[in-house]
Amino acid sequence: MNTVQKTLNISLSFLTQILIKQLPIMVLGLVSFNVTANEFDPRQAVHLNEQLKAQIFSNMRGMLTATQSIIGALAVDDMEAVANYARSVGFKAKKKQSNDELHSALPKSFKILGKAMHMDFDKIADDAVTLKDSKHTLQQLADVLGHCQGCHETFRIDSSVNEVSNSMPVK
Ligand code: HEC
Fold first, then answer.
1. Which residue's C-alpha comes closest to atom 7 of ligand 1?
2. Fold of domain 3-161
3. How many angstroms separate the CA atoms of 143 and 145, rounded?
4. Is the pLDDT of residue 132 over 60?
């Protein structure tokens, strides 16, 4: 990796950290046009139709499976497998399989967070082969799980057709 790439990598992860810390503020500012709150669930709702909802949930289960596989490979110090599993959910891989309809239905701050997470998996893959340091990978995994957690605390998916009736007082 040359110096320019290294600097780029460092500034990208720095940017990611800032984005994560600023997320709650950004969420309030950016996504109010297509998200709503629910009195029982304060998270912001992202409105998707049933098909896109099924798709994003399936992607999410894929993320959990990949994380589980990475941890399993890490436990037996198989850094090659760690890299392969991480690469499969990295940004480069995701970009290839990207779904335009789902992409355009998601709020911008959601996509920024998702992209940061996918890029972190690419970094996990890169470092797994170059550094072969399982402790370092474990730390990266802890950080990436922080992205999962942060987003889950902020957003929920809502596919109900009539959102207005959800916010009406119950008689
Ligand atoms: C950019 C936001 C975001 C990120 C990052 C994110 N998720 Fe999610 N995930 C969601 C939302 C929103 C839901 C739906 C929650 C709801 O509606 O209650 C969800 C749901 C899920 C589900 C439930 C799927 C189902 O079939 O019910 C799993 C499992 C999951 N996520 C795993 C993960 C894992 C593991 C990561 C990190 C490696 C992750 N997610 C990262 C936003 C995110």
1. 148
2. Four Helix Bundle (Hemerythrin (Met), subunit A) (1.20.120)
3. 5
4. yes
